[in-house]
Specification:
globular; mainly beta; single chain
Length: 305
């Protein structure tokens, strides 16, 4: 009994220490934790929607976060056949399985485990995103990132990132991969993105602790992909499949709560602009969305609107 009480009180002191330290260093607090919601999209792909769901439609500049994680081929084989986008960026990050993207201009790429694609749709792309496997586990994410009004109709751009280009590090027992942004001396391969994103994949060992710096004016959220982690200044435990929104501050406290804890941490500059979205188009006004549909139907989407 004595040793158990000693452990408890030491844990209590650690928590207290964290709280005091994070106030001094402006550690962000968790303001909201939400489970991802099962849904279907594309031609019938089963996925879990963490952001862009009824309870949380947007976290400016982030518009959507989907996780697909299944070893049942009927959940993913239908894929996402040809469809358009305008006015924002789609980011795909794969952990297991293989996807292929192909657009109507002939751009094509394959995404495998650990790889990423940052696609800036700008004035318009028409593409498909299809599985390149018939069985086995398919596990990955798609994030939508908004473009500001002045940049919604820029030329489309693809950044296809092979797994080996994503720098990795081990910081105090936390394994990290930096997809975008700079942190702990590593710089992710994604470049020239308006929201100045930080996109890190963090895997803290149980009890391992990291104070992840984030830009103070950026919107920040985390999505737990495996196990459980403790997040924010009050070290709230967040299990896999849940999204946590973080309040203002210059860092996020991350601690592994299970041996297999893992999370994606995203930060981006908010635009504070009106958002008009319908299906694959995200603009500032309803008129601009109607224009996008008109341009798509008339074959003008790829021409710059
Ligand atoms: Mn798409």
């Amino acid at each position: 009994m004595l040793s158990r009480r000693a452990v408890l009180s030491s844990a209590g002191l650690t928590l207290l220490g964290c709280a005091v330290k994070s106030r001094v260093e402006a550690g962000r607090a968790v303001s909201l934790v939400l489970p991802a919601q099962p849904t279907r999209d594309g031609a019938g792909v089963s996925l879990n929607r963490a952001l862009g769901q009824r309870a949380l439609s947007v976290l400016d500049p982030f518009l959507l976060l989907d996780e697909f994680h299944t070893d049942d081929p009927s959940d993913y084989l239908a894929g996402f056949p040809e469809h358009p986008h305008r006015g924002f960026e789609t980011v795909t990050y794969m952990l297991q399985g293989a996807m292929e993207h192909r657009d109507v201009l002939g751009n094509q790429g394959r995404l495998g485990p650990g790889g990423a694609q940052w696609m800036t749709a700008g004035h318009g792309i028409i593409h498909s995103e299809m599985p390149r496997q018939e069985r086995g586990l398919m596990w990955g994410f798609q994030l939508w990132v908004n473009l500001p009004r002045a940049r919604k109709l820029i030329a489309p751009r693809y950044q296809d990132i092979a797994p080996s280009r994503i720098p990795e590090a081990d910081v105090d027992g936390v394994r990290l991969r930096v997809v975008a942004g700079s942190t702990f001396g590593r710089t992710g391969p994604v470049s020239g993105i308006d929201v100045e994103p930080l996109f890190v994949d963090l895997a803290p060992a149980k009890g391992a602790h990291l104070r992840q710096p984030v830009p103070s004016g950026h919107t920040v959220f985390a999505y737990v992909t495996e196990g459980a982690v403790r997040l924010g200044s009050s070290q709230r435990e967040v299990p896999r499949g849940h999204l946590a929104v973080l309040e203002k501050g210059t860092s996020v406290e991350v601690t592994g709560a299970t041996e297999d804890g893992r999370l994606l941490l995203l930060a981006g500059r908010p635009w504070n602009e009106p958002i008009a979205r319908m299906g694959p188009f995200v603009m500032n006004t309803d008129d601009e969305v109607r224009q996008a549909f008109d341009d798509y139907r008339a074959g003008r989407l790829l021409l710059g609107g």
